[in-house]
Every structure is written in C-alpha cells, then in structure tokens.
C-alpha cells in the first residue's frame, strides 16, 4: 500500500505537494469515491482518477546498481552534482531504496515500487547490509565487540551487528573492517567507527541481503531477476515474524 499523493506524483501528474492540493480540493477519486483527506493509502489494484481521468500506473522495475564515488543517492540536485539516476536511461520514474553517502561506493537498489522499497528499508524487516571500510586505526577485539553489541549514536543505540578485521597495516595505522548491520541511519557506519576512534577513510557497501555486486563495475547496473525480488520480499517478511516472536 502507498500513500495516494505518492502514487499521483510517481505517475508524473504533479509534484507530491501539488498532489496533496489536488486531493484536498476534491479532484481525486479512488474506485469511484472522491477522496479529500490526506493519508489515504491505495494498492496496485485500486483505480485512481484525477479530474475524472485514470492515472497511468507504471509497471514496477527493480535495479541493482554499483554506485560510484561522488554521486548523490537522489534523483536530482539543485547544485547540479551527479545523481544515481544519471546512470540510467529508462522511462520509469525510479528512485533509490535508502541511500549511500556521497563519497560511499557500492551496492544500491533502485525501483519505482514503493511497497517493495518500504519492505527493504524499514528496520523491523532486518535486511542485512554489509560494508567494507578502510579506517584510520587498528581496532582491538574490544573495539569490535562494541560495534557488535551496539553503540549509542545520536541518542540511539544501534542493534547488534557483525564486525570482522580483514587486514591491518601497522606502519600506516590503518585497517580494513567488514561490518554488517540492518539499520540504515544517516551516516550510521561512519558514526559507529568514529565512536571507537576509527575515522573512515573509504567505505563500500558490498552486499544487501543475499545480493552482491558480482561483475558490475562502478556506474553499471542490472535488473533484478524475478526470483531475487521474491526472495527479498520473503526474507523481509520472515525477519519481521521472527522479530515479533522474540
């Protein structure tokens, strides 16, 4: 289910704010019934009309993208910086699922399916995301335990994670660390490493759930296969059920 104004915006009828104005002015109906209140959610099977004309609902598309460095996880930028959708030539109005920092590289998913995006970004669904970071220190086992047990950043404690020391360079006092988390807070990985005194020098997302970059090079993408989409949905729902039983 998606909010009505979001569906209208994705159909290219109007911006999200203008779509809200269309709703409150009585110009929108769902299954023949006029809707004037914001917050109404609709499914893919609902018939949405604006000023008596049915809106075009795009077929859902799903992409796996290798985000290069110095690229915004956005569809546009008022400073004319490179955004992830600059690497796509598709008719659908796709957007990134979650985000990676401007200087962070790696696996990013893009879609026009709002329900799917919510499944993969809401923390209750516990989809693992694995990052590899080059940090400006050599953490101790105690430091890694802190990452794994949860660290308070911005007044909130992170969930349990997995941390692994891949390599260390004692001469340069740097290390390569693999960290797996399932949240997606703003700058979370960098802030977690800062908390143990290890500033991040380079950061790459290696995997999202069972998905990896494979043979993709920075700036390249591929469509997700049908079984991958279904597997991600099932994984998210299974994780939600498991968390409720705990």
Automatic annotation (TrEMBL):
The terms under GO molecular function for this entry are: RNA binding; rRNA pseudouridine synthase activity
Q: What class of enzyme is it?
A: isomerase
> Per its UniProt record, what SUPFAM superfamilies does this chain match?
Alpha-L RNA-binding motif (SSF55174), Pseudouridine synthase (SSF55120)
Q: What's in the GO CC field?
A: cytosol
Keyword Isomerase assigned: yes
Q: Which family does it belong to?
A: Belongs to the pseudouridine synthase RsuA family.
Protein name as annotated: Pseudouridine synthase
Could you tell me which species this protein originates from? Trichococcus pasteurii
Upper lineage ranks? Bacteria, Bacillati, Bacillota, Bacilli, Lactobacillales
């Amino acid at each position: 289910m998606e909010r009505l104004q979001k569906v209208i915006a994705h159909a290219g009828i109007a911006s999200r704010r203008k779509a809200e104005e269309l709703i409150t002015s009585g110009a929108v109906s769902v299954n023949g019934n006029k809707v004037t209140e914001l917050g109404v959610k609709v499914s893919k099977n609902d018939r949405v009309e604006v000023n008596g004309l049915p809106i075009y609902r795009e077929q859902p598309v799903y992409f796996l993208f290798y985000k290069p460095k110095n690229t915004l996880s956005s569809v546009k930028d008022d400073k004319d910086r490179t955004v992830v959708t600059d690497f796509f030539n598709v008719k659908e109005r796709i957007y990134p699922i979650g985000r990676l920092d401007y200087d962070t590289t790696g696996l990013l998913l893009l879609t026009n399916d709002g329900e799917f995006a919510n499944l993969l970004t809401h923390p209750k669904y516990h989809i693992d995301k694995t990052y590899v970071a080059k940090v400006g220190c050599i953490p101790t086992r105690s430091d890694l335990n802190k990452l794994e047990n949860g660290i308070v950043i911005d007044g909130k404690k992170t969930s349990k994670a997995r941390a692994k020391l891949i390599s260390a360079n004692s001469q340069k006092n740097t290390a390569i660390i693999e960290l797996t988390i399932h949240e997606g807070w703003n700058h979370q990985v960098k802030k977690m490493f800062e908390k143990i005194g290890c500033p991040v020098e380079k950061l790459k997302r290696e995997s999202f759930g069972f998905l990896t970059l494979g043979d993709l090079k920075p700036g390249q993408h591929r469509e997700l296969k049908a079984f991958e989409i279904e597997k991600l949905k099932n994984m998210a729902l299974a994780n939600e059920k498991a968390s409720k039983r705990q």
